[in-house]
Design a protein that fits this description.
With 132 residues, the protein is mainly α. It is 89% helix and 0% strand. Helix 1 runs antiparallel to helix 2. 0% of the residues are buried.
Length: 132
Amino acid sequence: MGIRVLINKSMGQFLKDNWFKLGILVVLIIIALSTAYYFVIFIPNNENAKIEQKNREAEQKILLEEKQQADIKNSLAECLDSAETNYVNDWNNACETVGKEKDCTLIHITSERLDDARKTAIDNCYKRYPQN
C-alpha cells in the first residue's frame, strides 16, 4: 500500500507541475484528430457526393432526352396516321361525291389533288416532328 500512495502523490505532483503542458497537449491532439478527420473522411465523402450528384444529373439528362425522342417518334406516328386517315376519308368522300362506292377509282385530276394533299400532310409531319 505504501507504493500506491507514493505513486498517487508523485502523479498528483506531476499533474500539478505540468497541467498547462498537458492541456496544450490535449488541445493539439484534438486539433490533429480534427484535421485528420477533415482530410481523410470529410473531403473524400464530399467529393464523392459531388461526383454522384453529377452522375445523377447526367443520367436524368439522358433519360429526359430519350423521353423527348420517344415523344417525338410517337407524335410523328400519330401525325402520319392522321395524314393517312384524312387521305382515305377524303378519297372516300370524293367517291361518294361522284356517286361511287368507297375506295373507287377517281379521275386523274382528283386523285392527283388528293395525293398531293397527302404528300404535303406527310411532309408537314416530318417538319413538325424532325428525327435526329
